[in-house]
Design a protein that fits this description.
By secondary structure, the protein is α+β, with helices and mostly antiparallel strands. It is built from nine helices and ten strands. The longest helix is centred in the middle third of the chain and has 27 residues.
Length: 224
């Protein structure tokens, strides 16, 4: 048994509380894969091959509109996973997944994962908890795009990332283009709004890092 593989799996959000025998089983079926920056790991609509767990690097989950506009669904880093939905519904891959840095992932084949889930209900419950959290994320995303201004959506994004960081969760850095795609706007609008927030004293930007200086004011903007 590869102890390093077990350590890698234990760092995954859905594996942290799993019994040792389940993690050992996942280690046996997993394979370490590497992808360079820009590689398309999963293509939406294609038959699924595997679920993937990120060991190192960052990926973005996207959908592409017929006019070519990209909507970023999420940005993920080490300890997170993607393409688990087809394990349950036997449908095609739901999103594109692209490496935005060099990436290492554990590949967990779909067929093998279905058998492990059937044999170990604890794994199924752990993944269902993850799905519930992602469903809440999607509902919030739809709400933000439909009901809030760009300023409000950006304020909510900044606040949600700050809250996650304060809870000790992994928060992958975002470029302005990635922020724009996540909130349904363009990079220039994000740049202009960040500058406005900084002039108003809501945030401070130093070497690309954003610090919230006036949380109450930013929360008011998010709720407007």
């Amino acid at each position: 048994m590869n102890n390093e593989r077990i350590v890698q799996l234990r760092r995954l959000s859905f594996c942290r509380q799993l019994p040792d025998d389940v993690v050992r089983t996942l280690a046996l079926i997993s394979r370490l894969r590497s992808y360079p920056t820009g590689a398309l790991i999963v293509l939406a609509g294609e038959p699924p091959q595997a679920m993937y767990a990120i060991v190192a690097g960052r990926v973005k989950l996207t959908r592409i509109a017929p006019n070519g506009r990209e909507q970023i669904i999420n940005v993920m880093g080490p300890g997170q996973h993607f393409n688990a939905v087809p394990i349950f519904d036997e449908g095609p891959c739901p999103v594109n997944v692209e490496a935005i840095t060099d990436v290492e992932v554990l590949e967990l084949p779909i067929t093998a994962m279905r058998q492990v889930l059937a044999d170990h209900p604890a794994l199924a419950m752990a993944l269902l908890r993850e799905f519930a959290g992602r469903l809440r994320h999607m509902v919030n995303l739809i709400d933000n795009i439909a009901l809030h201004s760009v300023q409000g959506r950006l304020a909510q994004l900044l606040l949600s990332r700050a809250t996650a960081s304060e809870k000790g969760e992994l928060v992958a850095p975002l470029t302005q283009a990635e922020m724009a795609a996540m909130i349904g706007t363009v990079r220039e609008m994000v740049s202009r709004t960040l500058h406005q927030f900084e002039l108003q004293g809501y945030i401070r930007i130093e070497r690309g890092a954003i610090t919230i200086c006036n949380r109450t004011a930013l929360e008011s903007c998010a709720e407007a």
